[in-house]
């Protein structure tokens, strides 16, 4: 049987903010060799990509040096400065699950859209798709299951208008309330606690990431002495690790540095420096023993090894 999925590797790199000043970005729909290249502002940095090459599926894909260089060269063509390898704060590879419709025979049917098929005995298969269409993908799959199973739901899909967690009482100025109402209590290694401001970059990050639930993170930062930044120059707080462990099922250090925060993707070296503290806080939350702590450190560093950043010395001072 023909496989449904054609895996395609895509590399992205993160560059300093000055490549996308004042929120400006660049997209080239067709470069001289016919590819798509973009450079966009992302979480205070510049995200540039991407490549599209056939690959095999592995758990920890790694970007190749020539793929990184291709992106840097391609965007350099449109700028008056050279984009240097040393500017790369993080580089990673992801595998797109492109689908080919098994009912079609030509290769042009490989798609970034999703397909849904009905298999033997009413088995519903959904494959491919994109992040931007995840909700309608789910709706399509459930609708087909309803049809095949002759189910009688009492209402149509409601997810289109379903508010996400943290939207209650939130508005774009919410970050100013956080900045005004909270302080960050920072604990030194020796246990001394001293106050710090909830500055705009931190309150804005908390408000955008957690919505009105950011208040709960700010309370942890203030009342439990977990108000230190996890990495110099980034708005992620120690309190977020505790909050994610308690409320969002964050069970591993990799989960925190990659998904709850985006530090691994923004700056690999800064993420590596944050790992021991992330493990320490998760260990307290989840009551990990020494062996589990060691394992978490090992798997977090192995994960970060797959990111190909250049060594970045600006984070050496360790002031948080
Ligand atoms: C290179 C590339 C470029 C892309 N570009 C775009 C784009 O421009 N626009 C767009 O809309 N989409 C894009 N996508 C697609 C988008 O990233 C995916 O559609 C989206 O991430 C899917 O989200 P998900 O939550 O379903 O799965 P995932 O993001 O894959 O999340 C699943 C998570 O589950 C975890 N997991 C798996 N198994 C287990 C287990 N047993 N226990 C615990 N955890 C587990 C995985 O580690 C993973 O973190 C792109 C994808 C790639 C690879």
Concise account of the structure shown:
This protein has 320 residues and is an alpha+beta fold. Helix content is 35%, strand content 19%.
Unreliable stretches (pLDDT < 50, length at least 5) are 312-320
Describe the biggest sheet? 7 strands, antiparallel
- Counted beta strands: 11
N-to-C series of helices and strands = EEEEEHEEEEHHEEHHHHHHH
Structural class: alpha+beta
The total tally of domains equals: 3
- Level of helix content? 25-40%
Count every helix, treating DSSP H or I runs of 4 or more residues as helices.
10
Principal-axes shape call: globular
CATH uppermost class of the largest domain: Mainly Alpha
Under the CATH scheme, the architecture of the largest domain is: Orthogonal Bundle
Separation of termini? 55 Å
By CATH's scheme, which homologous superfamily of the largest domain applies? Answer: Alpha-glycerophosphate oxidase, cap domain
Average pLDDT over all residues:
91
Cα Rg: 22 Å
CATH fold-level topology of the largest domain: Helicase, Ruva Protein, domain 3
Strand proportion, as a percent range, falls in 15-25%
Task: Give the names of the bound compounds.
Answer: flavin-adenine dinucleotide
Family: Belongs to the FAD-dependent glycerol-3-phosphate dehydrogenase family.
Pathway: Polyol metabolism; glycerol degradation via glycerol kinase pathway; glycerone phosphate from sn-glycerol 3-phosphate (anaerobic route): step 1/1
Domain Alpha-glycerophosphate oxidase C-terminal: 157-293
Pfam families: DAO, DAO_C
């Amino acid at each position: 049987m023909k496989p449904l999925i054609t895996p395609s590797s895509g590399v992205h790199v993160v560059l300093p903010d000055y490549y996308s000043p004042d929120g400006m970005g660049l997209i080239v729909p067709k470069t001289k060799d016919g590819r798509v290249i973009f450079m966009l502002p992302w979480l205070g940095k510049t995200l540039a990509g991407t490549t599209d090459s056939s690959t095999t599926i592995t758990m920890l894909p790694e970007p190749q040096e020539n793929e990184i260089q291709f992106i840097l060269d391609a965007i350099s063509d449109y700028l008056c400065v050279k984009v240097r390898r040393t500017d790369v704060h993080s580089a990673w590879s992801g595998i797109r699950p492109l689908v080919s419709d098994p009912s079609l025979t030509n290769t042009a049917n490989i798609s970034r859209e999703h397909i849904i098929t009905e298999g033997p005995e009413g088995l519903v298969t959904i494959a491919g798709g994109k992040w931007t269409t995840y909700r309608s993908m789910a709706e399509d799959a459930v609708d087909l299951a309803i049809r095949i199973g002759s189910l009688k739901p009492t209402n149509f899909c409601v997810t289109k208008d379903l508010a996400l967690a943290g939207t209650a009482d939130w508005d774009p100025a919410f970050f100013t309330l956080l900045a005004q109402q909270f302080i960050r209590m920072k604990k030194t290694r020796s246990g001394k606690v001293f106050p710090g401001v909830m500055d705009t970059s931190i309150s804005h990050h908390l408000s955008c990431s957690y919505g009105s639930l950011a208040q709960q993170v700010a309370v942890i930062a203030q009342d439990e002495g977990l108000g230190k930044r996890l990495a110099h120059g980034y708005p992620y707080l120690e309190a977020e690790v505790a909050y994610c462990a308690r409320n969002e099922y964050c069970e591993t250090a990799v989960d925190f540095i990659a998904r709850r925060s985006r530090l691994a993707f923004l700056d690999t070296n800064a993420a590596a420096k944050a790992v021991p503290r992330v493990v320490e806080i998760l260990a307290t939350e989840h009551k990990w023993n020494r062996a589990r702590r060691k394992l978490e450190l090992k798997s977090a560093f192995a994960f970060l090894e797959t990111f190909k950043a250049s060594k970045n010395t600006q984070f050496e001072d360790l002031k948080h």
